Amino acid sequence: MAQNDNFKKGDYVVYPVHGVGQIEGVETQTISGLTVKLYAINFEKDRMRVKIPVMKAETSGLRKLSTANRLKDAVKTLKGKSRVRRTMWSRRAAEYETKINSGDPIAIAEVLRDLKRSNDDNEQSYSERQIYQSALERLAREVAAVEKTSEEKAMTRLEKAMGMSMKKKAANDDKKAA
């Protein structure tokens, strides 16, 4: 994992539970008589602001964006064969959420790969689609930040890597809109 210190204003970082955010600055606050340096992180997409003590940055999992090579490995994972185990859905769902919240792009790609199932909405439950969408957005935000592109373009690229045709995607989008 990358070094977790010396983030500065404007840096994009990944906070595992929330995804990609941008450092707004390093602030100093006095909490219960202790002076604490905090990273102020803005998660624009979620309209949220989080402050993390600098000394706890590493243990909280705060990290720099992945390297382009790490994201290539994640895309390679997307192209792999789906591995759906026949365990109870609640257990699989919990494992998927754990992988998404790990912040690891390869683990998130595994969730996408395993839930993709040719993107036939009739095959997926509501909760499967929600977890799939959450994983897609999380990975797309990191890809977009690393490649300096839009989240929509990153999503399209990831879905293309999974072999989803745009016709199917458009048909599914039409179904959701109806």
Explained architecture:
The chain has 2 domains: 12-64, Thrombin, subunit H; 68-177, Methane Monooxygenase Hydroxylase, Chain G, domain 1 (Up-down Bundle). 46% of the residues lie in helices and 20% in strands. The protein has 6 helices and 5 strands. α1 packs parallel to α3 (105-116). It is globular. The termini are far apart.
Search tags:
Methane Monooxygenase Hydroxylase, Chain G, domain 1, five-stranded antiparallel sheet, 178 residues, 2 domains, alpha+beta, 20% strand, single chain, globular, Thrombin, subunit H, 5 strands
Secondary structure elements and pairings:
Elements: E1 12-15, E2 19-31, E3 34-43, E4 48-53, E5 63-64, H1 68-78, H2 89-102, H3 105-116, H4 126-147, H5 151-161, H6 166-177
Antiparallel strand pairs: 1-2, 1-5, 2-3, 3-4
Helix pairs in contact: 1-3, 2-3, 2-4, 3-4, 4-5
